[in-house]
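User: Run a structure prediction on this.
Assistant: Running it now.
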Amino acid sequence: MRQRPVLLIAGILLVALAMRGIPVTAQEGVALPKPAVDAARSDSATDVTVFAGGCFWGVQGVFQHVKGVTNAVSGYAGGSARTAHYDMTHDGTSGHAESVEITYDPKQITYGQLLQIFFSVAHDPTQLNRQGPDVGSQYRSTIFPRNAEQAEVAKAYIAQLDQAKLFKRRIVTTIEAGKEFFPAEKYHQDYLVRNTDDPYILYNDLPKLRNLKKLLPDIYRDKPVLVSGR
């Protein structure tokens, strides 16, 4: 994935991807409407869902800055427990996608609003098995619903956005139900917050936070909630 001594290699890769027509520019946010169909109001103190949208560093970083989110953990979903490790997932053969488990207070933010954030600023849902410079099924756009209601709301929102033609290309996000989430290694947690000077973070992920603050200021919070608690 994105090891530290890769700047020269990354530069070569970006040129190669550009020559193949694969987007390599920093992601622009898309102003999207709220879902017409949302989850029923809940009195529960917490709820959980899992999203995958490219490198988990950026997706985790975005949701750590969302009001009502109480935790966001980078990890793996889609494959087995045996292969839920970075060194077994980075070649795209494990079935896993780099994912983020989001714990939230449904009285402060709805599942539909989380979907709105996911599609508008957290990643580009029209890129198949890749996000920017990261290529492979482990970077696919996927929703791992925790129950049937989440699956139905996600399916309806994808249909709503496709019908509205708010993206230049069709949404390729898949919905994979019944998949277990496995937390990633400690060094992947809070990576964006701890490495804001990393060239990968500067170019690919910090623009997502700026888009979140610009497009959805009512739900943006400046201080992130961290896995480390600090």
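Residues 148-164 form the longest helix (17 residues).
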